[in-house]
Design goal:
192 residues; single chain; 48% helix; 8 helices; two-stranded antiparallel ribbon
Length: 192
């Protein structure tokens, strides 16, 4: 495993590790690690599936310090917490011998979209799935309570302006047009 590749980012099972920012991203959740914890992960990732002694880990992460097993244990605990490794399957303890990284390391393909883009797409999709039904309910209640008044695009202008450039806006406008039949679907093709 070359150190130059590890200096950027890679996947550790399903988590994205970014050494430049000190972040681990899992399921859209971002955890920022202390520099020493990230340095410990870097040592592990250079030798996956190999048992590394606490002394060896300490010497690589704290080269000028006097050996302290508590420092290694603390940083391993923080690393496990960041990786959601409560059952100690990713960073395995080998009693009286050391620790090992038991995880698949993959590098993102440069030609495909970056993992961050995929995470943002998932967040936008979840947001759209939450906002659209809520708007349908609001519009339905508005129509039900005010039978004499029709909903126009002007009534929704503040909401539409805030979401104008997003995919959620396009989905919302299509949904509102379909639900109420009061905003012509022709508006969808105009301005897109």
């Amino acid at each position: 495993m070359s150190e130059s590749k590890l200096s950027k980012q890679f996947f550790l099972n399903d988590s994205l590790v970014n050494f430049e920012t000190g972040e681990i991203q899992t399921d859209g959740k971002v955890v920022v690690l202390e520099p020493k914890v990230m340095a410990l992960l870097e040592v592990f990732s250079q030798k996956p599936y190999q048992v590394l002694s606490a002394e060896m880990l300490f010497a690589n992460v704290w080269p000028q310090a006097i050996y302290s097993p508590n420092s290694v244990r603390r940083n391993i605990a923080l690393l496990r917490q960041a990786l959601s490794d409560e059952e100690k399957h990713i960073i395995k303890t080998h009693p009286k011998r050391g620790y090992s990284l038991e995880a698949e390391i993959r590098f993102p393909d440069e030609k495909t979209s970056t993992p961050l883009t995929k995470i943002h797409q998932i967040k936008n999709t979840k947001l759209a799935l939450l906002i659209i039904p809520a708007l349908f309910i609001i519009i339905f209640l508005f129509n039900f309570l005010n039978k004499d008044k029709q909903i126009s695009l002007e009534d929704l202008s503040l909401l539409l302006q805030a979401m104008k450039k997003s995919v959620t806006y396009k989905l919302l406008l299509m949904g509102v047009s379909w639900l109420t039949y009061k905003i012509p679907i022709v508006l969808i093709s105009e301005g897109f």
